[in-house]
């Protein structure tokens, strides 16, 4: 097996052969996805860093990896022993990716980037920045041929999500998209993002681990829609059903040729952040197309769940809550009996319990089961070779979720396994305060995710503490566990609307010591309307008790206690009909009011 440094040496040789002086290996695929099929996990392969986000740069004499705050600890561990220098994004004194490249490359030098997996916005930014130094960008694939035993392109069987779950037909959604395109002065669009294609056509598959998407594009014009997919994996009845919805089907690899050979004048909306450079270049090279930059309208459309989706996702959360109750009971029994339980055991038990639930089709992401100091790594993943055994003290953080045919779930609970320090109890209560303050918030309907993020951080900021990540993110419907355009992050400018789902997951992470996070999903709802405007609020749709054992009640105010007690009453009422007598009694004990 090659070492990381040996793999970097192969990239340098490929760079030289391509006439390049540096290369960028992003975390991306042709659809600019967050979670990648193994076939396109090149950054992971060449760097050894397994986190979901990161950018690797290799020059003739150096290499560096950029990661955000979620991965500082993990990346530092995984890069040990390699030549790659960790660049912690957002930390004072650390150069940005663009700053590093413009410093490394000079007059006449070339950066190699694979345009097939690079967003158009990124490519344009690179071109603009490097042009100032007299350097240029070359679209070339350096990965192919330098990755022995590269995994194959996925081709799982695709299927159509029934309208009893999705709520609206592909034909209706195509009408919505065309109306939005017209508002933006466009008539056509190449839908590249997998989550957008999935929502638009009610198309699902399992090409990505834990995310039920199919590798596909869709070219939409005023009177036509063409799905580009590996036709061998689309059942005939699904293709026929799409045909009845006004969708033609052709092979995945035909997209670029179809764009270059198109003969009708069209103004095409291009989502430059979600369209790869190869697709953009095919559009730009055809004179019949007038390109208009804009955001993918589907992202906003699918971000607001329809009434059928809302009813369904609540049902999915009920069954997910049942699995979580069974898990916590199992965990307590094992710990009380003094049996050996590892982080991997926790992962496997959660997966098994979810698989028992009706309509379950898997998990929504790799479970984070992190004991003690491991939880300080926000995206820690235990492996059989390197997992920790639980002990009757400290915290176990569990961040997990399920994929169901009627919804996608995401939940985090931090469990006290025994004796806690005063500091651990205090930190836990600070996080709980942050969680509650967001969940009970009432706000004007002009507020953005950036406005709301501050509310959740206030209780930890008051003690000089922060967390290097957003407070929450959107969640897809039988889709990606991370969804936009809305989220709870200081930089987010999307205005919240009724029907949006967002996670509420503040935390405290002290490297080498402790990690604490509490997460529910919230549904944005209308509240009071008066002379000041329309106010909105949140309804929790996660039905699972929050561990009260670590709470310091004196740190919660009366309103926070009232919210917590009401939440637990709701959880008890929702779940009890679906539990055995023993489970219901356990839940009643865990949801007693906090005085």
TrEMBL record:
Organism domain of life: Bacteria
Molecular function terms, GO-annotated: aminopeptidase activity; metal ion binding
GO cellular component, one term: cytoplasm
Keywords recorded for this protein, A-Z: Aminopeptidase, Hydrolase, Metal-binding, Protease
Keyword Methyltransferase in record: no
UniProt xrefs under InterPro entries: Creatin/AminoP/Spt16_N (IPR029149), Creatinase/aminopeptidase-like (IPR036005), Creatinase_N (IPR000587), Pept_M24 (IPR000994), Peptidase_M24_C (IPR032416), X-Pro_aminopeptidase_P (IPR050422)
SUPFAM superfamilies tied to this protein: Creatinase/aminopeptidase, Creatinase/prolidase N-terminal domain
Domain annotation Creatinase N-terminal: ranges: 8-140
Chain ranges of the Peptidase M24 C-terminal domain: 534-594
Annotated Pfam families: Creatinase_N, Creatinase_N_2, Peptidase_M24, Peptidase_M24_C
Family indicated by similarity: Belongs to the peptidase M24B family.
Protein name: Aminopeptidase P family N-terminal domain-containing protein
Source organism per UniProt: Candidatus Flavonifractor merdigallinarum
């Amino acid at each position: 097996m090659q070492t990381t440094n040996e793999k970097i040496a192969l990239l340098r040789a490929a760079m030289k052969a391509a006439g390049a002086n540096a290369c960028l290996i992003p975390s991306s695929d042709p659809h600019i996805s967050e979670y990648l099929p193994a076939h396109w996990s090149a950054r992971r392969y060449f760097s050894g860093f397994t986190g979901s986000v990161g950018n690797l740069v290799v020059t003739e004499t150096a290499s560096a990896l950029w990661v955000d705050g979620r991965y500082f600890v993990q990346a530092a561990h995984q890069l040990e022993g390699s030549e790659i220098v960790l660049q912690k994004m957002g930390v004072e004194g650390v150069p940005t990716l663009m700053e590093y490249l413009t410093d490394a490359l000079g007059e006449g030098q070339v950066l190699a980037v694979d345009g097939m997996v690079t967003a158009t916005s990124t490519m344009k930014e690179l071109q603009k920045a490097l042009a100032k130094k007299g350097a240029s960008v070359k679209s070339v694939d350096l990965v192919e041929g330098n990755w022995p035993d590269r995994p194959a392109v996925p081709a799982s069987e695709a299927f159509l999500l029934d309208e009893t779950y999705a709520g609206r037909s592909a034909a209706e959604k195509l009408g919505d998209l065309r109306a939005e395109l017209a508002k933006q002065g466009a008539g056509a669009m190449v839908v590249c993002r997998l989550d957008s294609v999935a929502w638009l056509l009610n198309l699902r598959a399992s090409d990505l681990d834990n995310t039920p998407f199919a590798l596909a594009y869709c070219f939409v014009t005023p009177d036509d829609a063409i799905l580009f997919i590996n036709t061998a994996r689309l059942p005939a009845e699904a293709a026929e059903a799409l045909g009845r919805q006004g969708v033609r089907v052709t092979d995945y690899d035909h997209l670029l040729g179809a764009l270059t050979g198109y003969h009708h004048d069209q103004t095409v909306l291009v989502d430059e952040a979600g369209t790869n450079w190869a697709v953009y270049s095919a559009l730009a090279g055809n004179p019949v197309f007038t390109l208009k930059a804009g955001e993918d309208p589907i992202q906003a459309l699918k971000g607001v769940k329809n009434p059928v989706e809302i009813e369904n996702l609540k049902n999915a959360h009920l069954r997910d809550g049942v699995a979580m109750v069974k898990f916590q009971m199992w965990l307590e029994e094992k710990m009380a009996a003094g049996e050996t339980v590892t982080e991997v055991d926790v992962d496997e038990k959660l997966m098994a319990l979810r698989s028992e639930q009706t309509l379950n089709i898997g998990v929504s992401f790799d479970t984070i089961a992190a004991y003690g100091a491991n939880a300080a790594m926000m995206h820690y993943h235990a492996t059989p070779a390197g997992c920790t055994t639980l002990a009757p003290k400290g915290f176990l953080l569990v961040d997990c979720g399920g994929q169901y045919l009627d919804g996608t779930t995401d939940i985090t609970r931090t469990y006290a396994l025994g004796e806690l320090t005063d500091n651990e109890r205090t930190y836990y209560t600070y996080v709980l305060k942050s969680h509650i303050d967001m969940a009970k918030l009432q706000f004007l309907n002009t507020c953005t995710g950036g406005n709301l993020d501050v509310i959740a951080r206030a209780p930890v900021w008051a003690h000089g503490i922060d967390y290097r990540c957003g407070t929450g993110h959107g969640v897809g419907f039988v889709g990606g566990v991370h969804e936009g355009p809305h989220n709870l992050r200081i930089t987010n400018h999307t205005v919240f609307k009724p029907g949006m789902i967002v996670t509420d997951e503040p935390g405290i992470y002290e490297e080498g010591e402790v990690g604490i996070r509490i997460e529910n999903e919230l549904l944005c709802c209308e509240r009071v309307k008066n002379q000041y405007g329309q106010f909105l609020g949140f309804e929790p749709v996660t039905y699972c008790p929050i561990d009260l054992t670590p709470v310091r009640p004196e740190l919660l105010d009366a309103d926070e206690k009232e919210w917590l007690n009401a939440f637990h009453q709701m959880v008890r009422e929702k779940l009890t009909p679906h539990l055995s007598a023993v489970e219901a009694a356990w839940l009643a004990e865990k949801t007693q009011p906090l005085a």
